[in-house]
Every structure is written in structure tokens, then in C-alpha cells.
């Protein structure tokens, strides 16, 4: 035990946390702090440690916030009641809320873990503002730091993502509320020993032992195995790596943001780089510049107050960099958040995809049986049809001369021709591409083929109902492929027509 200037006795653990807090200013002395308390041992110990530090002269103005994710009926309500009881016992302002994370995950098209994280931080920011706090303190521990480093090593070799948990950061980019992690140098076992010595209980979330989740597998299998085989020194080295990478990334991010401010032109919601300016940097720095530019535009398009985990991946940055190196104009539109990147002769332009008016609805054109032509004025196309017998065609020769604008189908595989129409895409369309093992949605097909979004509504199809048999210039369905038993052929060709 250590005595402070106020005469309060601090335990060794509380003194260790006090030292870390002082080094990192987490949170600064006298700050109003909202403590995020789930009811688990980490967050309960954080609350009691901060109460001890406040009584020892740090002057924190503490409050408590708890979010019920509505994921564990019964247990979630008991967790909420437990945390409310702690706040009453300690005579601290308290705020709680229940949010249906499953419903929000469906609405935002996120996995459950990502939705829970987003909702949690959105709630904590709002709770801090309502409780008058500048800082939200969370119970992330040394164990969480190790799990995070290993999890990120398993997922990526990109330097942007390999850093550990930082001691502090804005709770959301652009927010005035800071997030602080005072327990990053303390193990979970130390915190549980601290609580047990004081006869303080906590709640246990049994889903944390679900080994189908990667983090749980790392926590309960990988970390214990590393400690047993390689010793505590191995874990300390991992922690040191996390600390160094966090510092390097922090410094590099400051430099990258400075370079973006000085070297990138911003206008009309777009960022414009000179290609020659980008080429002046090493490849790793070009990657960092493009990543930050994409991230800035992604955040600017987010709804106000929305916590946004980046959907940017290394492959998106690489796609843009390949465009930079292409030496010719290129459009990259397979980016998250409705972003596009356009490489012109001398510049790289990153912005949001501007909404274009949808093309006029294309009335379905019935497919005439036999020879003929169909004018598709809305698309400026004409489809020319020709029927022939298999014996009338040099198949191998035709395949060698085949153009992207034409296709040969098995006319007998259509079945009755009634219902066959030429049209553009609509909801529910699906196709079984030639040689594919099964069907896929037409949307997934377009994504796989990297068809730009603005071209998808202007791509001509042959379909019966929602079953797509031909995508002009791109694919034919396996259902109507030509086989050795084919007797009648249908030749389809597109050519420019009157608009």
C-alpha cells in the first residue's frame, strides 16, 4: 500500500494505474469522466480504481454509463441492474439505455460484432455529453492489448492495421469526447484478484468463451499456449511491439495528414492529387496517403454522430494504386461507402459517386422466334437474331472468330419461347454463369465481373422471369450452353442502333 498527499492509501495496483495515468494523461487531473461499465470484472475494477484515485486527490468527477445490447435476454437485464446498483452504492450519476443490436446490424448490413461496437461507442459518446463528461474511460486491459495484436497479425500484414490499442483517442473521429484506457498495463487476473481481495463481485458473460469467435480462441487457447511454451517474456515482447507500432503509426499519421493538407487540392467534396506528386513518395507512403484520403471521404459521408468502423481494406488501396500506375485514365468504383477514384492523365481524384438519374425503364421486348432484329432505342442498340442448325456451323472456326458482341445459344434449351424477353436488370434476377457450379444473383455477378455501377442498369439481358440466360457482351447461362447434343442454334449479336 502507498500513501498519497491526501492520506488515502493506494494499493500497488492502484498506484501502478496512477503512474500510467500520469504518464499518458489518462484522463487529465480534474476531468469529468464517464466510466463505461458492462458489469464484467475489467470495467468494475476500472470503476473502483478510478474512485480510489479520485479520493486520493486526482479530482475526477465520475459518472457511470451502461448499454444493454439486448443480445442475452435475462442476463442482459441482470447485468443492467447490477451496474445500476454499483452506481447507487458509490453515489455516482448513472445513465443506461437498451438498444436492439440485432435489428441495427440488419439495418446497417453489419455483422453482429461490428454493430455492437458501433452502437456501444455511439451510446457512450451521447452518454458522456448528457452527463457532462469530456472523457469516456473503458476497461481495456493488457490481455485485450495482446489479443488485439495477435488478431490483427492473423488478419493482415499491413502496417496501417497492426498497431495495438492506443491509450487514448477521440471516441469518434471529429468528436470532442476522448476515449481513455487507463488499464492497458494491467492484466485481467490482477484486476480479478483486486476485486476478490475487496469482496467486490462482478458479472460473467459466458459468450466470451465461445471458441467459434476468433478473439475467444486467441484468449482461451493461443495466449495460454504461448505463455506456457515461450514464457512471459514472449508476451512482453508482443506488448512492446504493439507499443512501438502504435507510436510509429501515430507519428506517421500526423505526417500524412500534414502532407494531405499541403499537397492535395480539395474542392466540391473531392480530393485531387497530382500523379507526379504521389510518385515522389516511396510506395509505403503512397499507400498511407491514399488510405487517409479514402478514410476522410468515408467519414465525411457518414451520418452525423454515427460511429463508423472503416470498411476500407488493403485491396481497396491497392486497386487505387494500380490505377495510379496504369499510365492512362482509369475509373475505380469498387470502393466502400459510395466512393470512386478516377485517374486522369495527370491527376488522381477521390470523391463520392454522384447520383446519376436512373436510365428510363426499358419495356421488355419479346424475343421473336427465328431470324429477325429487335431495336432497343433506349440503349442505342440493335439485337440481330439468326437461327441455324448445328450442321450449318463450323463450331471451332466460329469460336476462333467470335466477338464480345455476339453469342451462340442452344435454341432447344429455351423450352417454349413464350416469356423470353430482352430487358435490363431488376430486383431478384439471378444467373448460373457458364461452367459455374451454381446460381448467383445478378448483382453478385456484376460485382465479380467488376462492371461499374453506372453500367449495370444499361446492360441488356435475355431472361425468362428472373432467370437470366444471356448478359450482352459478358456471359451466357449454363442452362442454354451449346453441347454436343445441340441440334438448333440461336446466334445473338448486338450492334449500334438508332437512339
Walk me through the structure:
The protein is of the alpha+beta class and 499 residues long. It has three domains: 243 residues, Rossmann fold (3-Layer(aba) Sandwich); 89 residues, 2-Layer Sandwich (Uridine Diphospho-n-acetylenolpyruvylglucosamine Reductase, domain 3), CATH 3.30.465; 132 residues, Phenylalanyl-tRNA Synthetase, Chain B, domain 3 (3-Layer(bba) Sandwich). Helices cover 40% and strands 20% of the residues. The chain is built from 15 helices and 24 strands. A six-stranded mixed beta sheet has the order 5-4-3-6-8-7, sandwiched between helices. It has a five-stranded antiparallel beta sheet with strand order 9-10-13-12-11. A five-stranded antiparallel beta sheet has the order 14-18-21-22-23, with no helix packed on it. Strand 12 and strand 13 form a beta hairpin. The longest helix has 32 residues. The N and C termini lie far apart (86 Å). The model has no long low-confidence stretch (mean pLDDT 86).
